[in-house]
């Protein structure tokens, strides 16, 4: 294979058109033709990473194996491609500036005025090429966050212009745009697309391919019009109509031949037709489930579903593995209390308590867990969800009425969840949690060992607090067992109820980040199965 090729994906007219899904779908098709592909996201905001962002601002923070806190689009890339991403796959304006400013302080530019062009754009270009230089990939798809015309994303677009100038045929630009539908006249309108392409042209970038998001099919005549006004081939005007599931989009793009148009532009051979047997089998099961369950997702950010993106997708994968449609009932933890918990949970076959930070809604989570424990409803607690299960057990089974996590109650004598030793002197908030992949050994005979079908696992973390081992014996004597332990520092990673409950598991890590179409996560698969088996006669 000759030099690495680069595909840039920009967006126009409106945000939220789904650049991440289009990028992931193209990557899937290229991968299915035998190419090694990865995707990179460039984010125009000034935070160094999204780790410090409230989920209401930017949805979930996705965590990679190497402990990078990243944009949730990286989750789509992994779920579609089944290949891990890393810090190099997500770069923000903040990170670019931080690198350049640190270099300036070191004296790397002595005598020079440090400027957006060339210093910032050089650093952007270096980051884009970095993934290509690892030698692991044939094609890098770089998605530029934001919308063309934003002040913030200008340096990224300028870097694309320079990279095209330097690398010519090794690059291809896809512009994702919107064709709004005017119901009054019954037409799709192309003018916003024309304007957005003109804006790109002002910056010196001619898109090669236009992917047009639209509610209705785009006619041949309209395609010819768009092609004429925007200087692209008519076969490079790609229609992207609304899909019933994001997992349909690769097949829509295949039908539109997006992969072929990209490969032709990059002067790469088509190889074979995309090998998508497993993908199509997944879609078949997704669309034709043989049963259905409703699972409660209890969290405090539920107004914005993107805050729990990976969990929702992990349920889709696990549902397919069980040929079962999982309906998520989103329940606000602030709206649950002892008086209404039975009512809130009456339709649920299982309950997942979500990750989170801070004490808003915490007592609602604890009430829900108590109810699930006592009424033997299958339960999965993730990170803060696991910590709440520990607190609930301490209060209501061990009788430690003031038990809490020291995150919520600094003064409690019974801090059954406590700050990790290594976190005690950490004052900086960004990138300082226990992050990324850590090993965990599973107890023989435990529910989790049966679910994974193995004794050693690696899972991704994002937290500062942990199970307080001072209390471990008390918990185990009373029936809550640590069935997953980090072999290096003895941290409790998993708790489960020993008996008298069909499925009650809390995990300190985030299994949802590792669930993909090809590899649905074993804990989610087993949890959905437990939901299907719950009070079958009902
Ligand atoms: N707030 C908890 C901690 O920092 C849990 C974090 C999480 O749920 N990701 O330990």
Short description:
By secondary structure, this protein is of the alpha/beta class. Helix 1 runs parallel beside helix 3 (73-81), helix 4 (93-106) packs across helix 5 (116-133) and helix 5 crosses helix 6 (154-167). Bound molecules: glutamine (GLN).
3D structure, described in words:
The strands form 5 sheets. A 9-stranded mixed beta sheet has the order 13-12-14-15-23-22-21-18-19, sandwiched between helices. Helices cover 35% and strands 22% of the residues. It has 18 helices and 23 strands. By secondary structure, it is of the alpha/beta class. The chain starts with a strand and ends in a 5-residue tail after the last helix. Glutamine (GLN) binds next to strand 19.
């Amino acid at each position: 294979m000759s030099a690495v090729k680069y595909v840039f994906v920009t967006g126009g007219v409106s945000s939220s058109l789904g650049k991440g899904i289009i990028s992931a779908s193209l990557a899937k098709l290229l991968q299915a033709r035998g190419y090694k592909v990865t995707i990179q996201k460039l984010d125009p905001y000034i935070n160094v990473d999204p780790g410090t962002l409230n989920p209401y601002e930017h949805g979930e923070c996705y965590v990679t194996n190497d402990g990078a806190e990243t944009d949730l689009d990286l989750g789509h890339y992994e779920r579609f491609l089944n290949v891990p991403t890393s810090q190099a796959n997500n770069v923000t304006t903040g990170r670019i500036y931080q690198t350049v400013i640190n270099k300036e302080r070191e004296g790397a530019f002595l005598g020079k005025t440090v400027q957006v062009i060339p210093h910032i754009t050089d650093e952007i270009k270096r980051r884009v090429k970095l993934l290509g230089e690892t030698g692991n990939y044939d094609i890098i798809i770089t998605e530029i966050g934001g919308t063309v015309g934003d002040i913030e994303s200008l340096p990224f677009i300028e870097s694309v212009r320079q990279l095209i100038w330097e690398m010519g045929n090794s690059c291809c630009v896809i512009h994702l745009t919107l064709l709004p539908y005017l119901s009054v006249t019954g037409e799709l309108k192309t003018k916003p697309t024309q304007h957005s392409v003109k804006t790109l042209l002002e910056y010196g970038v001619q898109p090669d391919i236009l992917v047009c998001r639209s509610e209705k099919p785009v006619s041949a005549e309209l395609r010819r019009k768009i092609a004429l006004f925007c200087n692209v081939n008519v076969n490079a005007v790609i229609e992207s109509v609304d899909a019933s599931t994001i997992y349909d989009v690769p097949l829509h793009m295949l039908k539109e031949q997006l992969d072929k148009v990209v490969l032709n532009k990059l002067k790469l051979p088509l190889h074979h037709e995309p090998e998508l047997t497993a993908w199509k089998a997944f879609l078949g099961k997704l669309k034709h489930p043989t049963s259905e369950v409703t699972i409660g997702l209890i969290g405090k950010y539920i107004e914005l579903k993107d805050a729990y993106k990976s969990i929702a997708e992990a349920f889709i994968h696990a549902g397919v593995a069980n040929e079962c449609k999982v309906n998520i009932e989103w329940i606000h933890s602030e709206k649950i209390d002892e008086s209404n918990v039975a009512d809130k949970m009456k339709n649920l076959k299982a309950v997942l308590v979500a990750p989170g930070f801070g004490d808003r809604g915490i007592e609602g989570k604890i009430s829900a867990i108590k109810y699930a424990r006592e009424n033997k409803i299958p339960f999965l607690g993730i990170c803060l969800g696991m910590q709440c299960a520990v607190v609930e057990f301490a209060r209501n089974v061990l009788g430690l009425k003031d038990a809490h996590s020291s995150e919520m109650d600094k003064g409690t004598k019974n801090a059954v969840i406590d700050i990790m030793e290594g976190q005690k002197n950490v004052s900086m908030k960004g990138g300082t949690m226990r992050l990324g992949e850590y090993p965990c050994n599973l107890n023989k005979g435990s529910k989790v060992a049966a679910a994974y079908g193995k004794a050693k696992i690696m899972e991704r973390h994002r937290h500062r607090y942990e199970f307080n081992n001072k209390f471990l014996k008390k918990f185990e004597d009373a029936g809550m067992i640590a069935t997953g332990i980090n072999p290096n520092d003895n941290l409790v990673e998993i708790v489960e109820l020993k008996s008298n409950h069909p499925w009650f598991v809390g995990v300190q890590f985030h299994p949802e980040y590792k669930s993909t179409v090809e590899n649905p996560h074993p804990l989610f698969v087993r949890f959905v199965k437990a939901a299907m088996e719950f009070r079958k006669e009902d």
